């Protein structure tokens, strides 16, 4: 295995990795002091608008729709990067295994590159992970929910639903990324980083609203130290004393080679690799590869939902290094016709399974599910 071009080659690759990371907006939003603090003015306006909207819904001046099947909302406080899509896929499979007929309702993103289709990265991922679970995508989630009910679902997983108030929910789950709890990377001293609304930070909602959810799911709990994790849990409990706190990890599932053959993710151990990603939290992807023993030359981290173009991978994968990407990026990168290894991951709940089971068991059955149960009982009566 080649190690690159000696000391100078390694320095150049490190420089490219840092430059790619700095080009992402969160890299400079994470800084403190200077002109960037002027963004707190529009951030205050954004926060005020969010608070007003919640007030109008809470008072009933804006209406919300109650469905005939229970709704499980999965959301977060910040703009992307909490690992929500793997969790939604895990939850959909988990419900299916327990005899439910779940459907997934998503707003989607802005569509894919070059108008090839209108599916987002997350939509394609969910379709691959849950081929038998109905999925509806679109900005009008009330209409999407109606279509899912017509397809016979008996519960709906509302993807990215914490800020969506038009649908009433029966269970509210909020994800908090342990590596960047309030959207931006942790500070150099290990603190929780800048906590601010868009555009100064990445918050879309006030952390105080965590008190209104049923459970908080701390994701990537294995990517911070035990002390940092305990400190985060204590802070979350001070913000929201009522909800239970669950802990989960994003576990490497397998490594898929350019020819489609899958192997254990441990195949990265000792391998010289370059990374390319366009996801919400590229540092988490990099940390996973490092934990697997991959020797990273460069990580070219593009903005979330990046539309890849010829030249984006120039200089990567030389001198025998593998190019490794995420499952979310793989399909868009395929158009560039470069040999790419895909690291697939899955969510795994490590603490709080009993609490989640109790919350799901307490959900109303819904008229459709009760109707099928009555028919079933009649056939066996």
Largest sheet: 12 strands, mixed
Cα(first) to Cα(last) distance is 68 Å
Low-confidence stretches: 1-22, 111-117, 372-381
Radius of gyration: 22 Å
Any idea how many domains? 2
Shape: globular
Descriptors:
20% strand; alpha/beta; 2 domains; 12 strands; Rossmann fold; disordered N terminus; 381 residues; 11 helices
Description:
The protein is of the alpha/beta class and 381 residues long. The protein has two domains: 6-27 and 252-346, no CATH class; 36-250 and 348-361, Rossmann fold (3-Layer(aba) Sandwich), CATH 3.40.50.300. The protein has eleven helices and twelve strands. β9, α8 and β10 form a beta-alpha-beta unit. α4 runs parallel beside α5 (121-129) and α5 (121-129) packs across α9. It is globular and about 60 Å long.
Summarize this structure briefly.
The protein has 381 residues and is an alpha/beta fold.
Question: What's the layout of helices and strands?
Answer:
Blueprint: H1 6-22, H2 25-29, H3 40-58, E1 71-76, H4 84-97, E2 102-106, H5 121-129, E3 135-137, H6 141-150, E4 155-159, E5 171-177, E6 215-219, H7 226-239, E7 244-256, E8 262-263, E9 272-277, H8 282-291, E10 295-301, E11 322-326, H9 327-334, E12 341-351, H10 353-361, H11 367-380
Parallel strand pairs: 1-4, 1-5, 2-3, 2-4, 5-6, 6-7, 9-10, 9-11, 11-12
Antiparallel strand pairs: 7-8, 7-12
Helix pairs in contact: 4-5, 5-9
